[in-house]
Amino acid sequence: MLAAFYDRQGAAADVLHVGEVPDPEPGAGEVRVRLTVSGVNPGDAKKRSGWLGNPMPFPRVIPHSDGAGVVDAVGVGVDPVRVGERVWVFGAQSYRPFGTAAELTVVPDAQAVRLPANVSDELGACLGIPGITAHRCVFGDGPVTGKVVLVHGVLGGVGAMAAQLARWNGASVVGTVRRAEDVRAVAPTTCDWVVALDDRDPVSAIRAVAGGVHRVVEVSLSDNVDLDAAVVADGAVIAAYASRADRPSVPFWPLLFANVTLRMLGSDDFPSEAKGLAVRDLVDAAAEGALTAGIAARYPLVDVARSHDYVDAGAHGRVLLTIP
Q1: Which residue, 2, 59, 87, 154, has fewest beta-carbon neighbours within 10 Å?
Q2: Would you write out the chain's pLDDT as a tens digit for each of its 324 residues?
Q3: Contact between 264 and 240 (Cβ < 8 Å)
Q4: CATH 3.40.50.720 domain span(s) along the chain
Q5: 207-216 b/e (C-beta count within 10 Å ≥ 16 → b)
Q6: SS3 for 306?
Q7: Rounded Cα gap, residues 267 and 40, in angstroms
Q8: Helix (H, G, I), strand (E, B) or coil at 232
Q9: How far is 203 from 83, CA to CA, in rounded Å?
Q10: What is the Cα–Cα distance from 70 to 3, expressed in whole angstroms?
Q11: CATH superfamily label, 2-126+293-322
Q12: Which architecture does CATH list for 132-268?
């Protein structure tokens, strides 16, 4: 099969190659998926670059955890009726060497999820890491019906999914963008209000439209924690899945007096039950038309290095590889 791979870490153009590798075969409890689309996430690019000094987990890595396609073979213990089923894939390269930047990938049966007939392969390839992370941010502390949810970085993959899932569950959603000129790029169906963080007074702007915030979906804890502390309601939860600084300082007393819970989220290591709930809700929301994914760029598999460079540059929206 044709696949992208790297044997060492570094810059995308230096280490990513595309060539023929042996077809993978599904083991017991696994399915093989013939892929049509591979989703490129920031975490994929970080693994390739050796971010934070993380070493190569395997001698050779076929990158990317998310994708969509059709089951074409099953291993022992998997119902053969799955062959021919359209699926979306998550966690393909989570603690495994063989991701979705290839014509074929093999994953545990539960990690290839049936795609509803009205959901495209492109949307399916956007549901994995962003969707499951977003779901945990929004619902890790219970339903949000009737609550106010603040989603930072609403133009990003996780942020857009979080805002849509929160609205689907009956929340009012405030989304933020970094610059005023980005406000018009947010789709009206994504959130109820949009606030630019370069506004003269974003705290007042958020409070004016939403009052106190019950949940915060945080893309950069080190940059936004002071703002978060100024807008949260008593008993709020700040769910942080990223931070620009690796040792952020926090306004302890304002957070304490507001009885705030600070939740840290690493998507590869969510409990199995949490992933299962996320998969269920993502499929339901997508089937109901409540989820969309803004596609920033599409690249053919042979241009995988360009796709990583685009993600590294901070793409607004999802980046996809089309698989031949």
Answers
A1: 59
A2: 999 999 999 999 999 999 999 999 999 999 999 999 999 999 999 999 998 888 999 999 999 999 999 999 999 999 999 999 999 999 999 999 999 999 999 999 999 999 999 999 999 999 999 999 999 999 999 999 999 999 999 999 999 999 999 999 999 999 999 999 999 999 999 999 999 999 999 999 999 999 999 999 999 999 999 999 999 999 999 999 999 999 999 999 999 999 999 999 998 889 999 999 999 999 999 999 999 999 999 999 999 999 999 999 988 889 999 998
A3: yes
A4: 132-268
A5: eeebebbbbb
A6: helix
A7: 15
A8: strand
A9: 52
A10: 17
A11: Medium-chain alcohol dehydrogenases, catalytic domain (3.90.180.10)
A12: 3-Layer(aba) Sandwich (3.40)
CA distance 84 to 279: 20
pTM above 0.90, yes or no: yes
Q: Of 279, 274, 282, which Cα lies nearest the Cα of 140? A: 274
CATH 3.90.180.10 occupies which residues in the chain?
Answer: 2-126+293-322
DSSP one-letter code for 213: E
> Considering only CA atoms, which of 320, 312, 294, 298 is closest in space to residue 125?
320
220, two tokens: 């950069």
Token readout for 283 is: 């499929």
3-state secondary structure of 168: helix
Three-state helix/strand/coil letters over 8-69: CCCCHHHHCEEEECCCCCCCCCEEEEEEEEEEECHHHHHHHHCHHHCCCCCCCEECCCEEEE
Task: Tell me the C-alpha distance between 11 and 324, whole Å.
Answer: 25
SS3 212: coil
C-alpha–C-alpha distance, residues 158 and 132, integer Å = 9
Place of tokens 């109820």: 192
